[in-house]
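Hi C.,

You asked whether I'd gotten around to modeling the 405-residue construct. I have! Everything is below, sequence then structure, no commentary in between.
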Amino acid sequence: MAIRPMARTDVNRSAILAHLGAHGPASRAELARTLSLSPALMTQLTKDLLHDGLLRELEHQASQGGRPARMLGLVSSAGRAVGVKVASDHVAFVEVGIDGTVLRTASEPFDAAATTMLMSLAGLLRSFIAGGSSAPLLGIGVGVPGSVDSQAAGVVSSTQLKWNNVPIGATLRRELGLPVLVENNVNALAMAERLYGLGRRHRNFLAVTIGTGIGAAIVIDGLIVRGFGGGAGEIGHIPVREDGPRCTCGNIGCLETFVSESALVATARDRNVIAPGAGVAALRDAADRGNPAAIAVFGEAGHLLGRAIAGLVHVLDPEVVILLGEGTADWGHWSYGFEPAFRAALIPARRGIPVAVETWQDASWAQGAATLVLATPFDAEGIAGEQGDLVRQRLVQQASPQERS
């Protein structure tokens, strides 16, 4: 499997911005301790950020003896980014500041199967951007459920969206006149998790999303594994049963056909647990009321998911498994089947691996997409290509001489 990484310097500098945005001004020494970086590396990173107009030096910190430490703070006007999560029936938007702080969100109906879907998406983005803040817009990040050839080119193939080689990146760049970066939505979410969530404390983790589909992002030594064609992590298409249901990908018996939201609903309807027209909310309500048949539907799905993830743990040896996505709202019911199956399927040396469940909002997907843009100015390895250069140019042009001093 080929690894096309997101740059380490990218992650470290973005993590500095994220920490200052979340916790306020800090000294270089505090940042180095918090982010587990050497003082020498922190000095170089903050020097670069000061030069780029993203940080400014503030007053000295009161000293307990010795030389007072100079505090660093964000230049809040340095820029913003827009992220969008594309689903089959809606799009979620988020505008974030340079530190990743969410400024506003929105959600709009969307038909991914329509012949005019790209023009519709461009129009929705144009309307959302028009209502934004006065800070310069650095670019747009787009998260999609499928394979993306590269962030820069942005050609997407997705079984969920029924897209095959759709040039979403080039189309949005032409229509909006802005840098556009496109990535698999789970990879983008893992990048946000690495910067702002539980992943900040781990350099090797597996992020698994459950909900409409089942996906995974693999982070090894702080880098996202994209695979040769940008499609690494498609665990929803692990073959589970040769006589199972047909999957949207065309194969038979994929994991997703048993544990996705639509699969749970179909099973519950077949067993008369919920009414023919009811959805996952009705199944959740039944399980919350203690209906054993409803609890069994979640438990069986959890059992299959646990065994599948155990296999990935054996292959990848992560520090932690992080579960995210819409389905985590029901994790109390999933866990009855997941935990025993997951632990039993692991070799003894790995049975203690922690499983963390993140709280979830739909905007989290879009925030992950926006992170693609925020990380790009520090992309030393150039994976964003020309689009990364354009983001950097917009950032440098907007930083005033006063902010750089």
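If it helps when you're writing up: Confidence is low (pLDDT under 50) at residues 1-8, 400-405.

Thanks,
B.
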